[in-house]
Design brief:
Distance between the termini: 24 Å
CATH class: Alpha Beta
CATH architecture: Alpha-Beta Barrel
Bound molecules: flavin mononucleotide
Helix content: 25-40%
Number of helices: 15
Radius of gyration: 21 Å
Structural class: alpha/beta
Strand order of the largest sheet: 1-2-3-4-9-10-11-13
């Protein structure tokens, strides 16, 4: 476990991320997501708060499962419109020194050679401050947009993802030796060709001879994030992830998830304690309890239930418009996001949720716990998750943008610093995101499958 808590801002390069309807809240600035200065302000604020990273979610399709139609999603800005996340990273890196940037990319709709090149470039441009959040994508509409007749089933997606990362690891870790680049002007030799190697990958899904087209970047492999909760997803996280995102809303669910993924990591030959576990939280803070409660009530009133159902229908690949709002949610195995399903069924076997209750709860940050109170109360609860439950960090989900982030940094972070639970802005441990998040060196540890 880490000595201090880790924080990421979990956001999206779009109007809405996971609090549908909040763009209508008075003063909300979400519509500025197209504005470079919006993102550079976010980066400065997150670094002032000592955050590890700004973590961008991403999807490639429209939420059209609800009512078998895209109308609700488009009208209500349910993760649409959304711009590409990785392209704002260099602007944010320019105004910060230590903050990291985690970018979600799907292994289902891109090619490993292309992705390896993009992340090597980002790692160079950020001086080693980039992470890759590996997802396999859940929206059928994305599959159609990217040239497939239908979404691949989950097993095939994870199988492809495993091979995808193996190709990337070979390109990032094995293709160029550390001292391959010489820049010897007199000899006219930029690179020693003997020290650049083909990867010669021939697999089921990809054929990539290599070598990698980029010289080694500070971290070589970006920090690997992952959030899978199905059986396949857990194995994938255990083998590959350095930071794992647990989406269970209850303590028991998080503990079960962490123990299970750690056991699988040990089976895969890794030190299970080297994995960092993050949970999502939705902090709602006020100078007094009454202010915080009033803010929370006004946020809840502002939740757009229909938009939330459209979002959840995409997460679950289940048309919630067909269900009676007072009907109990029954557990299913979904080909979309299993963690969202489990959150309201198997993770809480003693509680029954109706469709309406799920929508009302999920309208503010989906499955994550809401932490409402004064800075002291919020930090008490974070401390509980950190010290008692054993998580390493938190993905902070905003409701109102950028006020939720600013409230957190201006009100909660001073209390965290008072208790020595978060770094000072000049207290980042290393130069790279990997050093700051894992406490290790800038490169992947020797027991990671990519190094073996
Ligand atoms: C908290 C959380 C955040 C996620 N963020 C994204 C995302 O931004 N984009 C995406 O395509 N998938 C995202 N996913 C999907 C997963 O990474 C994974 O691909 C999907 O959940 C299917 O695998 P699973 O059933 O093993 O969880 C997210 C999942 C969770 C639980």
């Amino acid at each position: 476990m880490s000595e201090q808590m880790r924080f990421n801002l979990f956001t999206m390069n779009s109007v809405e991320h996971v609090s549908p309807g909040s763009w209508t809240y008075p003063g909300d600035q979400s519509h500025r997501y197209t504005d470079r200065e919006y993102w550079t302000e976010v980066a400065r604020t997150a670094e002032r708060g000592g955050f590890d990273a700004v973590f961008f979610a991403d999807v490639r399709g429209i939420y059209d499962v609800y009512g078998d139609d895209r109308e609700t999603a488009v009208e209500k800005a349910v993760q649409t419109p959304a711009n590409d996340p990785q392209l704002v990273v260099p602007a944010m890196a320019e105004v910060t020194d230590d903050l990291g940037f985690a970018v979600t990319r799907s292994t289902t709709y891109t090619h490993p050679y292309q992705l390896a090149r993009e992340f090597s470039t980002l790692d160079h441009l950020t001086d080693g401050r980039v992470a890759l959040n590996v997802v396999t994508s859940y929206l059928e509409s994305a599959a159609a947009n990217l040239g497939l007749d239908e979404r691949m089933d989950k097993e095939t997606r994870y199988d492809r993802a495993a091979e995808f990362l193996d190709v990337c690891y070979a390109l990032w870790e094995d293709s160029w030796e550390d001292d391959a680049v010489e820049v010897d002007r007199e000899a006219g030799r930029y690179t020693d060709p003997e020290k650049v190697h083909a990867v010669d990958h021939e697999g089921e899904h990809f054929s990539v001879p290599g070598p990698h087209g980029c010289e080694p970047s500070p971290q070589r492999t970006p920090v690997i994030y992952q959030a899978g909760s199905s059986d396949y997803g857990r194995d994938f996280a255990a083998r590959n992830a350095e930071a794992v995102f647990a989406s269970q809303p209850t303590e028991e669910g998080v503990v079960e998830y962490m123990e299970d993924v750690k056991a699988r990591a040990a089976d895969a030959g890794r030190d299970p304690e080297s994995l960092r576990f993050f949970i999502g939280v939705v902090p709602v803070v006020g100078e007094t309890e009454a202010i915080a409660e009033a803010k929370y009530d006004s946020y809840k009133e502002n939740v757009d239930v229909e938009a939330t159902l459209a979002l959840l229908s995409g997460f679950l690949d289940m048309d919630l418009s067909e269900l009676d709002p007072d009907q109990k949610v029954e557990h299913i195995e979904t080909d979309a996001i299993q963690g969202t399903m489990n959150a309201f069924t198997s993770s809480q076997p003693d509680r029954e949720w109706t469709v309406r209750e799920v929508a009302e709860f999920s309208g503010l940050g989906t499955t994550s716990p809401k932490i409402v109170g004064t800075p002291e109360q919020v930090v008490d609860e974070l401390e509980y998750w950190f010290h008692e439950v054993g998580v390493d960090g938190f993905n902070v989900k905003e409701v109102v943008r950028p006020d939720s982030l600013q409230d957190f940094v201006d009100l909660v972070v001073p209390e965290l610093r008072e208790r020595d639970l978060i770094r000072e802005p000049d207290g980042y441990e290393g130069d790279t995101l990997r050093e700051n998040t894992t406490g290790g060196g800038p490169r992947l540890p020797a027991d990671h499958p990519a190094r073996r």
